[in-house]
């Protein structure tokens, strides 16, 4: 006889109460320091209406101003008799009909929506993560296989690389790449940042790959070789597919860590998400609001990665 299933709602209720208590504790803490929340200042750092000034192209006279919705079309007649038109926002008009204007005088401004610094920082974080993650995966795969090689030179060099990178802070490696290697080879800061992140990630991926390959029973290799497969064919078609299923969780965790590690490239003046947040704070004075938004954007990147990895892991488990 099946046991009755226990109700789960009390535990969900407890979870909700704990979250509410944490939110209240945060609010109470900020009230003790008399912090004034200014969430209305935050949206402009995601998107804002940029203004572009429109100037007179020649000396002349304002011949006509025609309203077009929220805009106004200004028709200028130059001293030579030529006409030119400019479309500006009606509430920004600096001239009237019949006014004399000189070349370069401002007529008004046009407005259009533009991405704010937080969105640009998010984009920079994304492309740096993708590029450095792809190169890190390739470096890690090659290094992990070298660590399992029977060639002593390949094995020793890969071991030195892994231990050197894992034994030193990423921040120090970024400084070395930018100020030393980057200066000698005349590399851009973006190249130096991506290279440092890729090599750092590659060292950890190498250990994940090595552990995954070594976890496969030796009988798999022996069976494949008995069927006539060469060592590279055995690794590619038999060992690595099985190892991939086992290393997927730690690989996903490593790439999630990589996204967060991109915040360190701000020390070499790359305006990624964290640096964009710091710059926004200097102009808005909304410290808590901006940092909460930055944290939420990192979550926006990492939560889908975690869900995709979990779904892929379940699908691979079903294919066994």
UniProtKB/TrEMBL annotation:
Q: How does it sit in the membrane?
A: Multi-pass membrane protein
- Entries under InterPro entries matching the protein: AA_ABC_transptr_permease_3TM, ArtM/GltK/GlnP/TcyL/YhdX-like, MetI-like, MetI-like_sf
Keyword set, alphabetical order: Amino-acid transport, Cell membrane, Membrane, Transmembrane, Transmembrane helix, Transport
Q: Does the keyword Cell membrane apply?
A: yes
Tell me where it resides: Cell inner membrane; Cell membrane
- Residue ranges crossing the lipid bilayer per the database entry: 12-35, 126-146, 167-185, 191-209
The UniProt function text for this chain reads: Part of the binding-protein-dependent transport system for glutamine; probably responsible for the translocation of the substrate across the membrane.
Question: What protein name does the entry list?
Answer: Amino acid ABC transporter permease
- What organism does this protein naturally occur in? Zestomonas insulae
């Amino acid at each position: 006889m099946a046991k009755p299933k226990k109700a789960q709602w009390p535990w969900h209720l407890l979870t909700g109460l704990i979250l509410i208590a944490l939110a209240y504790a945060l609010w109470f803490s900020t009230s003790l320091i008399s912090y004034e929340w200014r969430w209305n200042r935050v949206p402009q750092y995601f998107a804002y209406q940029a203004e572009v000034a429109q100037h007179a192209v020649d000396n002349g006279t304002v011949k006509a101003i025609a309203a077009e919705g929220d805009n106004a079309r200004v028709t200028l007649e130059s001293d030579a008799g030529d006409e030119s038109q400019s479309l500006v926002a009606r509430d920004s008009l600096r001239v009237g009909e019949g006014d004399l204007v000189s070349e370069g005088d401002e007529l008004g401004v046009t407005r259009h929506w533009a991405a704010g610094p937080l969105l640009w920082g998010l984009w920079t974080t994304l492309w740096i993560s993708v590029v450095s993650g792809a190169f890190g995966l390739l470096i890690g795969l090659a290094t992990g296989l070298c660590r399992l090689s029977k060639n002593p030179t390949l094995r020793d060099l890969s071991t030195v690389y892994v231990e050197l990178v894992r034994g030193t802070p990423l921040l120090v490696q970024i400084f070395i790449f930018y100020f030393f290697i980057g200066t000698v080879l005349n590399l851009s800061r973006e190249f130096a940042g991506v290279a440092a992140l890729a090599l750092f990630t590659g060292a950890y991926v190498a250990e994940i790959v090595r552990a995954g390959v070594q976890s496969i029973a030796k009988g798999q290799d022996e069976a494949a070789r008995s069927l006539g497969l060469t060592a590279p064919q055995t690794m590619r078609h038999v060992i690595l597919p099985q190892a991939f299923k086992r290393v997927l969780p730690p690989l996903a965790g490593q790439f999630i860590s990589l996204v967060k590690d991109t915040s360190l490239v701000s020390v070499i003046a790359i305006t990624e998400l964290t640096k964009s947040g710091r710059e926004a704070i200097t102009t808005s004075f909304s410290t808590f609001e901006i940092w909460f938004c930055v944290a939420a954007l990192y979550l926006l990147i990492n939560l889908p990665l975690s869900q995709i990895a979990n779904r892929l892991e379940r699908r691979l488990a079903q294919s066994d």
